[in-house]
Write a structure and sequence with these properties.
The protein is an alpha/beta fold and 345 residues long. Helix content is 46%, strand content 13%. Bound molecules: adenosine-3'-5'-diphosphate.
Length: 345
C-alpha cells in the first residue's frame, strides 16, 4: 500500500516537473521569437550630418522608456545632458488631412525606434499667434530625442491653411511632407460627425449632413461647406506645390491604413529612408474596437482613443452619389499629380 502511494507521488512529481520544464522552455522560445521580431541589428542614422552614425536598436528601445520619462517631465537636466538628448525640429510633418487618420498614422510611425512623435498638435504654422512666437518656441514644443532619431509632428489644419506652405518652406525647404487621405465623401461625413458630436456635447442642435452638403437653392453640392472644401484634396495640394516639389510629399491611403496598416507603414518607412522596423507583431486587430491597435512590446500595447472610429450617421444615398460625382474629377487630378491611384468611386 505504502509502495503504491510512493509510486503515485513520484508519478505526480514527474508530471509537475515536466509541466514546469515545458513552461520554462516555452517562455524561453517565446522571448527568443520576440527578440527576433524586435530586431537587434544596428540602424542607420540616415538623416543629416550623422549619416554614418549607427545606434544599436536595443539601446534605442531601452532609451525610449527613458524618453517617456522626459516627456512626462520626470527627467533631470543632468540626465538630459548625460544622454545627449535634444529637442529637434521635425524632419517630417503629417500636414493632413483632418479625419484622414492622422492620429493613427502618427502613433503607428512612433512604433519605429528611430521616430519620436510630438504628442500634441502644435499648430505652429497655422496659428498666427503661435507663429509670432518664433521657431525656438516651436522647437521647445518638440519631445526630447537622440540626435539620430527623427521627430514627426502632425497638425491636420496645415493642409488647408493658406499661409502654411510658405512658412514651412522658410523653416526647412527639404522637409518631408505626409498627407493621409480617405475617400473624400467618407472623410467629409467623418468631419461632420466630429462637429456634430461637439455640438451634442454642448447640448446644441445641428443641421443634418444633407442640409449642409447640398445647397437647397440650386440642389448642387455646397462648396462653401468646409467639410466639402477640405475633401477637394487637389485644390489644396496645388497651393503646396508652389513651394515644394511633388517628390517631397508622400500620400498615405487612409482607408487602407484602417484595414491593412502594415503595407502603408512600410511605404512611409521607405519614403522617410528609415530601415524597415515596424512589423506585424506591432499591430494587432482588436475585434471589440474594430480597429488595429499598437503593440510596442510584450507588456505595452494600446488602442487609439474612442474619439477615433466614431459611428457615422446615416446619409441619404442620393446625396452620397451626388458628392461622389462631384469629387470624381478632382480625384482624377489628384491621382495624376501624385502618381497614386486610390480607386475611389
Ligand atoms: P472615423 O472616426 O470617421 O472612423 P484623424 O486622426 O485624422 O482625426 O482621423 C480619424 C480617423 O482615423 C477615424 O475616423 C478612423 O476611421 C481612422 N483610423 C485609422 N486607423 C485607426 C485605428 N487604428 N484606430 C482608430 N481609428 C483609426
Amino acid at each position: 500500500m505504502l509502495f503504491k502511494q510512493q509510486a503515485l507521488l513520484r508519478q505526480k512529481l514527474f508530471v509537475l516537473g515536466s509541466l514546469a520544464i515545458g513552461s520554462l522552455l516555452y517562455l524561453v522560445a517565446r522571448v527568443g521569437s520576440l527578440d527576433r521580431l524586435q530586431p537587434i541589428c544596428p540602424i542607420e542614422g540616415r538623416f543629416g550630418a550623422r549619416s554614418q552614425a549607427e545606434i544599436p536598436l536595443r539601446a534605442l528601445q531601452f532609451k525610449r522608456g527613458l524618453l517617456h520619462e522626459f516627456r512626462k517631465g520626470n527627467a533631470t537636466k543632468e540626465q538630459i545632458r548625460l544622454h545627449n538628448l535634444v529637442q529637434q525640429l521635425p524632419k517630417a510633418i503629417i500636414i493632413g488631412v483632418r479625419k484622414g487618420g492622422t492620429r493613427a498614422l502618427l502613433e503607428m510611425l512612433n512604433l519605429h525606434p528611430a521616430v519620436v512623435k510630438a504628442s500634441q498638435e502644435i499648430h505652429f504654422f497655422d496659428n498666427d499667434e503661435n507663429y509670432a512666437k518664433g521657431i525656438e518656441w516651436y522647437r521647445k514644443k518638440m519631445p526630447f530625442s537622440y540626435p539620430q532619431q527623427i521627430t514627426i509632428e502632425k497638425s491636420p489644419a496645415y493642409f488647408i491653411t493658406e499661409e502654411v506652405p510658405e512658412r514651412i518652406y522658410k523653416m526647412n525647404s527639404s522637409i518631408k511632407l505626409l498627407i493621409i487621405v480617405r475617400e473624400p465623401t467618407t472623410r467629409a461625413i467623418s468631419d461632420y460627425t466630429q462637429v456634430l458630436e461637439g455640438k451634442e456635447r454642448k447640448n446644441k442642435t445641428y443641421y443634418k449632413f444633407e442640409k449642409l452638403a447640398i445647397d437647397s437653392n440650386t440642389c448642387e453640392v455646397n462648396t462653401k461647406y468646409k467639410a466639402v472644401r477640405t475633401s477637394i484634396y487637389t485644390k489644396h495640394l496645388e497651393r503646396w506645390l508652389k513651394y515644394f516639389p511633388i517628390e517631397q510629399f508622400h500620400i498615405v491611403d487612409g482607408d487602407r491604413l484602417i484595414t491593412e496598416p502594415l503595407p502603408e507603414l512600410q511605404l512611409v518607412e521607405k519614403f522617410l529612408n528609415l530601415p524597415p522596423r515596424i512589423s506585424q507583431y506591432n499591430l494587432y486587430f482588436n475585434a471589440t474596437r474594430g480597429f488595429y491597435c499598437l503593440r510596442f512590446n510584450i507588456v505595452f500595447n494600446k488602442c487609439l482613443a474612442g474619439s477615433k472610429g466614431r459611428i457615422h450617421p446615416e446619409v441619404d444615398p442620393s446625396v452620397i452619389t451626388k458628392l461622389r460625382k462631384f469629387f470624381h474629377p478632382f480625384n482624377q487630378k489628384f491621382y495624376q499629380i501624385t502618381g497614386r491611384t486610390l480607386n475611389w468611386p
